[in-house]
Sequence to fold (589 residues):
Amino acid sequence: MQNKKHNLNKIANREALIGVGLVIFNFIWWYGFAYGLGSKDPDEYRIIFGLPDWFFYSCVVGFIVMVVLVIIVVKAFFVEIPFDYEDEEGEAER
Amino acid sequence: MNWAAIIPLFIFLIIIFLVGLYASKFVQSSKSFLDEYFLGDRSLGGFVLAMTMTATYGSASSFIGGPGTAYTQGLGWVLLAMSQVATGYFVLMVLGKKFAIVTRRYKAITMVDFLKERYKSPVVVILSAISIIVFLFSAMAAQWIGGARLIESLTGMSYTTALFIFAASVLVYVTIGGFRAVALTDAIQGSIMFIGTLILLIATIIAGGGISNIIADLHAENPNLISPFGAEGTLTPAYVSSFWILVGVGVVALPQIAVRAMSYKNAKSMHRALIIGTIVVGFIMLNMHLIGVFARPILPGIEIGDKVMPLIALETMPAWLAGIVLAAPMAAIMSTVDSLLILVSSTIIKDVYINYMKPDASHTTVKRMSIGVTGILGVIIFIMALDPPDLIIWLNLFAFGGLEAAFIWPVILGLYWRNGNKYGAIASIIVGVGLYTLSDLLPKLLSIDSTAMDSFFKPFGMHAVVVPVIASFIAYVLVSLLTRKTIPNELKPNF
Fold:
């Protein structure tokens, strides 16, 4: 049973790390497009769907990318584990 | 009196009230009163969980103040607001399954319960309970004032009448229905926020003659409005980025948010909530703040930022539809207030009363006390909001940042670092809250040249929350390592 507990822990730790990875990626995307494209003179912004390019990529596309990434990560890497392993352990020992 | 706006608002209040009644059935019949009343018996599904997280977090500031500032600052403020997309997935992923498993094992029903079992230290519990009660009480009072002002401006009633209606409706459903009523009404309120902002954004774009047109108008007025740097060029990348801590990742440490990360039924609910939450929070934040920016060419010259939302709704839509859409900010305020109310009540009952005053209190006493304290808290806040003391207003400014600085490391490192201990947690809470409060207090008290102060408390022009969060991390780790030997191995967590 110790083994199973160990596994659950590994899963939980990995998923938390994925969260940290996602937020770092999110920040880089957001920052890169906003200040990479946005630092020009406002007269030189390209307009995409009516919005300035930096805003379109950073905030609109950035948001959509994050939603897609979250969906992929959850469907592909997140494991459905039981939360009350203590009870199962107790029963097994009994 | 503006009847077209009042009727949708009252229908909304009646629905909320019915949900409270429905939830109170669970409270009456539950086997474990505390679990049910303060945590909804850990039975939330994915949709309700996502909505209650978003709605609790999206408060008066994001719904009324946010669009108002976006109106003044332009797209740079929308960029800043988008740092909140992270809250949609980060909280649930980082606290995650570990928090769900550990809090179940500890049988914790509040965040303080978790800290108590993890650190086994009365000092940690008392410090946490005091921070929560002081900060969240003030935050709550400020939100009530916001709610009452909104009803006042929508309906033309007096402030006192508006406050009474607001207070009475929140109090009734929270007191009788507990956490389940809060979560279910949050789901309704979150949906209203989602749909309301969408309708209003579309109406605003149409009124402005299309997005291209609006952006061209903004550019003609002041090119900075469409840059990431704000109308006056004052929004520096360091300042804007530091909001990723204040309103992005730091949110994991807010007790009213963390408690939700222990309230869901199973892994499946959590997975669904991750996806729905990210979509909903990003959608609402983007639309809400864009409305503020787009309102500028349509209604130029609004002096008070808080009025941008109500005015643009009344300008672009027929009154009855405006009434429905303006139920959205109302919903945002209510859904924050109700969560804070039940949280402060749980802190008083579970963390203080049962822990230290009467551990053997009977089921009936606990039940009566819980409902009583929730009700009395509401009445006190009502009286405070009638004529808000300056102290409350001041404390409210620190509420969220202060709680984040206090709890982020005791919670996160407590969960993932075996060697973190009570001394580290105590040091972290004191350093975090202390530094954050001093960053405002010291320059005022000493009235000396503030540039030296600023470069210490706000290096590179970042928000004042950054330094306390970093300092409290160092305090936690250093003190935990220094005192490592004093904690016997069997007291360390074995997860």
